[in-house]
Specification:
The protein has helices spanning about 10-20, 25-30, 35-45, 50-60, 90-105, 140-155, 175-185, 230-235, 240-245, 265-275, 320-325, 345-355, 410-415, 435-450, 475-480, and strands at about 75, 105-110, 165-170, 195-200, 200-205, 205, 215, 220, 220-225, 250-255, 280-290, 300, 310-315, 335-345, 365-370, 370-375, 380, 390, 405-410, 465-470, 495-499. The chain is of the alpha/beta class. Helix 5 packs across helix 10. The longest helix has 18 residues, at about 435-450. Uridine-diphosphate-N-acetylglucosamine binds near residues 113, 115, 224, 296 and 394.
């Protein structure tokens, strides 16, 4: 097919490419088969060429130094045990406040599911990964059950509750995600309570020159712009306007990789909305770190300076090990508040960020092997070492724009069993499908014993059975006492049971 005039590079665009140091894209356009020219030209036109030189200077040709909070110290948090003398607080009061928010339909669920899941080696959207310890239910199905469970718990015959669910995809997995839901009849949810929107992308850049990489002769190499992109994508996609139309005040944010997340937690919602040290803009959940080297973000605060007392998350790779290994007199880790990437974010705060002229989250740089096309020879390449830089934004950097923020501790077994890494042949890898299934059983056993169900245990004390507890049955130990599901008196040794 001959190239149409509109598929030609205009002199203005050629000059802008030259100015941005990206003239190789003009050459790529000359070489691409005519049928693909319009496709490539569209992608070139979508690049923010005016911003690229500064990004290349600041993130590719130099590695930005991470500035720790001044006189960094561990952030304070609400301990899981509300009667702890260290910081007692009124759990019943905050639970009631959060339940009210849920009952009055003010809360939406929001999952960020745009990541590439490359560590797990799973083809397709990560939310399609089979996670249920017994049923093998995909992650998206488990979250749908949690929403249905909350609707049962907080709605009534007189006041039917529909909790909207927003799902951020990326252009790479959007269609596959939507069709997975369609094929599975939205897992029992109503079609119009689930909204999908893709996040933005960034061009991937050559690690030595900063030139935009090509994935193929007709395709610029891009990467999703990080979960921080959700704060602008919520607005740009119309999701935020949809929330306002539905009367939503708070967004319950979670990651796609954790099937045991308590994704509509009334106590957390209550603390977020009414704790004296919360500005009700953005709040976070933490667990005590499993070890000094666990790869989780850490809640820190500035101990001095203009930002004194402000809470932020410092990614494990940015907090020097010498800090991560510091201990208290009783031997516990000093920086022990690990982020499980669960937040409540107010609709008003996201709206405010999107109307502030200067709003911009910082970028974070990641070095990656990016296969594609050599930018000089245009021959295919499969790099053996990192050849590209990915730029991403992190949602938790928005904590730095919040007036006052709270952190709430939860228990690791109750709420944190992410699936991030592939299984290993001879050991249980951390954050793997197998470790996740083991935690699901341990958690269910603990909650069931609490309401009098007898659990078979091995001499070492581990449950001698496999249990999957649907979040429709209970999303926390508290729910199990009043669940509508008939529970057995005892579970047989060696049983596989889904409740
Ligand atoms: C993340 C957090 C870490 C936290 C840990 C808890 C970062 C940088 N670190 O680590 O502080 O302790 O989880 O499990 O986030 N995503 C998108 N779009 C993107 C990139 C990611 O939607 O462009 C989503 C993923 O689908 C996933 C989540 O964000 O749901 C986390 O991404 P991932 O890169 O896997 O973060 P972790 O390294 O696991």
């Amino acid at each position: 097919m001959p190239a149409t005039p509109s598929a030609q590079l205009s002199p203005d665009l050629a000059a802008r490419l030259q100015h941005a140091g990206q003239q190789h894209l003009a050459r790529a356009l000359e070489r691409v088969p005519p049928a693909d020219r319009a496709h490539l030209l569209r992608q070139i036109k979508a690049l923010d060429l005016e911003c690229l030189p500064a990004l290349v200077r600041d993130y590719v040709k130099s590695k930005p130094a991470f500035a720790l909070p001044e006189a960094v110290e561990p952030a304070p948090y609400y301990p899981r045990d509300s009667s702890s003398p260290r910081r007692p607080w009124d759990e019943q009061h905050f639970r009631a406040l959060g339940e009210n928010l849920l009952r009055s339909g003010k809360v939406a669920a929001f999952v960020v599911a745009g990541g590439q899941g490359s560590r797990l080696g799973f083809e397709g959207p990560k939310g399609c990964y089979p996670a249920g310890a017994v049923t093998g239910k995909p992650l998206f199905h488990v979250f749908a059950d949690a929403i249905l469970g909350a609707q049962d718990r907080y709605g009534s015959a007189a006041n039917r509750l529909t909790i909207p669910w927003y799902i951020m995809t990326s252009p790479l997995n959007h269609d596959a995600t939507v069709s997975f839901f369609e094929t599975n009849h939205f897992f029992g949810l109503q079609r119009d309570q689930v909204m999908f929107f893709p996040q933005g992308v960034m061009p991937s850049l050559c690690i030595s020159t900063g030139r935009v990489l090509l994935a193929s002769p007709r395709e610029i190499a891009t990467n999703p712009d990080g979960h921080g992109g959700s704060l602008t994508a919520l607005h740009a996609s119309g999701a935020l306007a949809d929330m306002q139309r539905r009367g939503i005040s708070d967004i319950s944010y979670f990651q796609v990789d954790n099937p045991v997340v308590n994704l509509l937690d009334p106590v957390f919602l209550g603390l977020h909305s009414a704790a004296p040290d919360s500005s009700a803009q953005m709040s976070s959940k933490m667990v005590a770190k499993a070890s000094a080297s666990e790869k989780v973000g850490l809640f820190c605060a500035a101990g001095a300076g203009p930002r004194k007392g402000k809470i932020e998350i410092v990614e494990y790779s940015d907090l020097p090990m010498s800090y991560q290994q510091q201990t208290n007199p009783d031997g516990s880790l000093k920086f022990n508040a690990g982020s499980i990437a669960v937040h409540i974010i107010s609709v008003a705060f996201v709206k405010q960020l999107n109307t502030d002229d200067g709003f911009s989250l910082p970028y974070h740089r990641a070095e990656k092997k990016i296969p594609g096309i050599d930018l000089d020879t245009f021959e295919p390449i499969t790099p053996a070492a990192s050849n590209g830089v990915k730029l991403e934004r992190f949602v938790f950097d928005a904590l730095q724009m919040v007036d006052k923020s709270i952190v709430y501790e939860t228990d690791r077994t109750d709420e944190f069993a992410p699936i991030k890494n592939a299984d290993e042949p001879h050991a249980v890898a951390s954050d793997s499908p197998t470790s996740c299934r083991l935690i699901q059983t341990r958690r269910a056993a603990r909650w069931l014993e609490h309401v009098g169900v007898a659990i078979p245990r091995s001499p070492a004390g581990d449950p001698d059975c496999i249990i999957e507890l649907s979040p429709r049955t209970a999303s926390c130990a508290h729910d199990l006492a009043s669940t509508h599901v008939k529970l057995p008196k005892a579970i047989d040794r060696g049983a596989r049971i889904a409740l």
